[in-house]
């Protein structure tokens, strides 16, 4: 039983395949991190400062950008240090902290996209009741639920994983992931698997199906409307649809990769696929919303020009 005692350190094995590419990768990822922080911070500041943007749709976009800052800050600093390091050991406490931050970021992203879909559904299908149904109190209640529920469930799930006796310490990733830790267990993980499945259903599939349902209702309402009405709906809904599709694809890639034998995949491809969900949405969301929505674009350019003078 001594060999199955809880490991103090985990070894992130996927870094060994980077080799001499570590320095260009470090520079590229550092610039990427700077861009993510800068772009999402601009979105948050613009929406928080401009009273005309204190509407539910824009507030949800600000929360989405804030979540991008949260997830990126929980991932990039450690990742950048590991790129330059010769050893890639991470302490048990740091590993589970990283799991919590990355997983809550991922869950928050999907639940926020879910309430954004509800906002667009009310705006298009019940326009006369929009201000009553999407009051400031309702907005903050939805956001609180979108943040508290995943955080509570993930705390329970990760606590179960933290209590498992492990018979190894090698994680085939460039960051800590709950499923990779569970696979190292010396005992049955049936309870962990059931809790993990319920968590995935609650924070991924339920928001996913709800978003699809709301857009089917929106399409049904738009079907018999004028071209002008359809254009206005498309302008307000398209950025959300793009964000949702990007995140769904990148999230699916990471979930599928965790269940696949990585020895059968090109190491470089495996690393890229595992990083998509934590990199692409924070990069693309501010571009999609900042460039597509005229109000955010106008105020962002005004604020940037003011600071550059």
Automatic annotation (TrEMBL):
InterPro entries: GPCR1_Superfamily_Member (IPR052921), GPCR_Rhodpsn (IPR000276), GPCR_Rhodpsn_7TM (IPR017452), Olfact_rcpt (IPR000725). GO terms for molecular function: G protein-coupled receptor activity; odorant binding; olfactory receptor activity. PROSITE patterns: G_PROTEIN_RECEP_F1_1, G_PROTEIN_RECEP_F1_2. It is found in: Cell membrane. Keywords: Cell membrane, Disulfide bond, G-protein coupled receptor, Glycoprotein, Membrane, Olfaction, Receptor, Sensory transduction, Transducer, Transmembrane, Transmembrane helix. Residues 39-289 form the G-protein coupled receptors family 1 profile domain. It comes from the Eukaryota. PANTHER family: G_PROTEIN_RECEP_F1_2 DOMAIN-CONTAINING PROTEIN (PTHR26451), ODORANT RECEPTOR-RELATED (PTHR26451:SF847). This is Olfactory receptor. It comes from Seriola lalandi dorsalis. The lineage of its organism: Eukaryota, Metazoa, Chordata, Craniata, Vertebrata.
